[in-house]
Amino acid sequence: MKLRTKIMLPALMVAAGFNAHSSQIQEQKITTLFPEVDAFSYGEHQVVDIKSNISKFLAKEVESLTPKLTSIMSPHRLAVPLTSSLLQGTAADKLRLASHYTRRLKGLTLSNDAIYQLRLADSSMLESWLEGVTPLVAFAPKGDDKTWLYVEAYDQNGNMHLLDAHRMPTRPVLIVEIDSKKSAREGLAIMRNIFTLNDQGSLPRNIEQASNVESLSTSNLQRIRLNDDEEPWISGSAEVYAIVTGVSPSRDKPVLDIVDMPYLDHDGRDYTPNQTLIHWNRYRWQAADVLLMEQDDNTNYQTLATTFLDIVTQAMRAIPDANVQGYAIIPQLTNQLIKAMPAHWFSNDDDYIDVFYTLFEGQHYDAHMGASGNAKVTIKPVTINPR
C-alpha cells in the first residue's frame, strides 16, 4: 500500500487548517514564485524542488548575506535559521512562502517560525569564507543517498556546479535544508497528541492502576548504536524516534507510544542515554515491540500518525480472539505498519531504521540486535518507586 499517495493531499489540507479554496490559492502562489515546483506532485519532489529554488536565489544573495552570516556562525554553530528577515523584497517573499508551504506539506502547525536552515558543510570552510572565498549554495538530492554521484550547487552568478557527493568540497558550501530538530520536535508532538486522543478511552483505568501500585515497571535504554553507513557529506544529523507498539491492558485496542531520541544524531557511535523506553503498565501480556524511525524531509506527521493508527486498528479487528494468541499478535501489528511503508523507505536510512520484536517486561537485553541488523541496544528493567 502506498501510504502517501492514497491519503496525502486530504490529510495535508486538514492538518494545516485549509479549506479547498485557500489551499488552491497556496498552490497558485507556490507555482507563481517557484515555477519548477509541481504543486500536485509527490511530496518528495516538492520538498527537493523547493530547496533547489531556495538555493538558486540565495546563491545570488550570498555576497550581501556574508557579513551577517559569518557574524552568527562559528566552528560550534554552523547552522542558522533561514528567516525572511535575512532577505529583502521578492527573495524574502519566496522564503516566507517556501517555509509556509513546507510546513503544510509536513502537517506541521502553520506559523512564521522558520522551518529551513542554512548550514555550512564543514567548520574547516569558515577560514576561507572569511578570507573572501564566496560560498556555493547546495541542497541534498532526491532518492537513495547510496546512489548519489553528484550534489547540485549554485554560485552567485546562477551557474550550477556538480560536486562529488562523497568527497568534501574544498570551497565553502552552504546547505539549504529543513531544520530537522525543529521539524521533529513539532511533528512528534503532533503524533503524540493523535495517539493520546486515540487512547483516551483506556487512560482513566491505566492512571488508576498506576496510582494504586507501589512501584512502576519500566524498561530503560542503557546503550544504543546505529550502523555506520558513511553518509555523504551533505547529509545532516539524524533525528531518530521510537514507536512502541502493543495492546491495551484494559480493552482489545492497540496502543502506540512515541519516544523521542534527540541525542541519537549520528551513526557509528555508542550513546548511553539512560532513557525510559517502555512503561509496562501501558501494555498487556508484559510484551511490546519497538520500531525505530528517522525523521525525513518528506514526512507528513499527521498523515503518518493517523495512518499508523488506522493500520493497527484494522489489523487488530482482523484477529478473531486476541487473548487466544496472546503476545504473538503484537508482531503482527508491527509488521502491518512496516508493510504499509512506501518501498523507497527501505532503500535509505531515512524513515525506517530497525525493529525490535517482542520485548518482555523484566528482561535484560545486552547488545541486542534489531531484526534488520541496523541497530543494537542494551535494555535493562528498572523499577520506579513513586514518592
Can you give me a brief rundown of this structure?
The protein has helices at 3-15, 20-33, 43-72, 89-105, 126-130, 180-199, 203-211, 301-317, 322-325, 329-340, and strands spanning 79-81, 116-120, 136-138, 150-154, 160-164, 173-178, 216-226, 240-247, 254-261, 270-271, 275-279, 287-294, 351-360, 365-369, 375-384.
Features:
five-stranded antiparallel sheet, disordered N terminus, six-stranded mixed sheet, single chain
Sketch the topology as an H/E string, one letter per element: HHHEHEHEEEEHHEEEEEEHHHEEE
Task: Please tally the helical runs, counting DSSP H or I stretches of 4 or more residues.
Answer: 10
- The multimeric state of the shown protein is single chain
Rounded Rg: 23 Å
- In total, the number of strands is 15
Q: What does the overall shape look like?
A: elongated
Count of separate structural domains: 2
Q: How much helix, percentage-wise, in residues? A: 25-40%
Strand content: 15-25%
Biggest sheet strand order reads: 1-2-6-3-4-5
Poorly predicted regions: 1-25, 38-44, 202-211, 344-350
- Tell me the structural class: alpha+beta
The profile of the biggest β sheet is: 6 strands, mixed
Distance between the termini: 48 Å
Average pLDDT works out at 81
